[in-house]
């Protein structure tokens, strides 16, 4: 098991390093430890980010953002990202100009995993995003915001940085929609220079009620709604190529 995993990882790393940069994307330098980001750095920007997809409400989220001239960032996870409907959503988000990134494979507590298990969690989502969109992500969000030095080491060796947040909408806390809206109101009234949000795309009210309200309120307050990479002035992807054709490897079985 260990030897086969190491072979897979060796091939994956060789493939990424050998791949050319395309368009305005550049190969992200691999590093000893991943950078952990909690705030945007470009003034008057807001990065609206969405975890736990690809889910059906992605379309509502994207349409609301695009209609407002805004972009978002989607942190996708497994285990069935290769399902035709889910893969279609991933590609749709990417083609609409949103940033696609990794939430690792099985939403595990990364700070409890071994070196090999961590590489496996990162690689499976990287591989899926590369096959579906042609883009190799430079960003990951650890589930629950949990990480340790080993997580940072593994992520950094894979060319990934870690993105957390400085504003949690609370859409997974079981609070009312009205309370989530109040959280956004309170945020805006505090006039932060930048905002890096945590939202989830798996809740209908969050996608169809909260997000349109938040977009309107944030833009009225003078913020630009951009991708995570844009709010940091950093690359979204290690490299960008062409999507792959669906084949027998597009499966979650055995992964």
Describe the structure.
It comes from Psilocybe cubensis (Psychedelic mushroom). The chain is α/β, with parallel strands linked by helices and 255 residues long. It has helices at residues 2-18, 58-67, 84-95, 115-133, 149-157, 177-189, 204-220, 228-232, and strands spanning 36-37, 45-47, 49-53, 73-76, 99-102, 135-137, 139-140, 161-163, 167-168, 195-200, 224-226, 237-240. The strands form 3 sheets. Strands 2, 3, 4, 5, 9, 10 and 11 form a 7-stranded parallel sheet that branches. It has a 3-stranded parallel sheet with strand order 1-8-7, with helices on one face. It has a two-stranded antiparallel ribbon with strand order 6-12. The two termini are 12 Å apart. Residues 1-28 have low confidence and may be disordered.
Structural topology:
Layout: H1 2-18, E1 36-37, E2 45-47, E3 49-53, H2 58-67, E4 73-76, H3 84-95, E5 99-102, H4 115-133, E6 135-137, E7 139-140, H5 149-157, E8 161-163, E9 167-168, H6 177-189, E10 195-200, H7 204-220, E11 224-226, H8 228-232, E12 237-240
Parallel strand pairs: 1-8, 2-10, 2-11, 3-4, 3-10, 4-5, 7-8, 9-10
Antiparallel strand pairs: 6-12
Give a brief description:
It comes from Psilocybe cubensis (Psychedelic mushroom). This protein has 255 residues and is of the alpha/beta class.
Number of strands: 12
Q: DSSP helix count?
A: 8
- The CA-CA distance between the termini, in Å, is 12 Å
Shape descriptor reads globular
Q: What is the chain-wise order of helices and strands?
A: HEEEHEHEHEEHEEHEHEHE
Largest sheet: 7 strands, parallel
Structural class label: alpha/beta
Portion of residues within helices: 40-55%
Rg to the nearest angstrom? Answer: 18 Å
Look at the structure and give the mean pLDDT: 90
Strand content bin: 15-25%
Query: In terms of per-residue confidence, which ranges show pLDDT below 50 for 5 or more consecutive residues?
Result: 1-28
Protein name: Peptidoglycan-N-acetylglucosamine deacetylase
Organism: Psilocybe cubensis
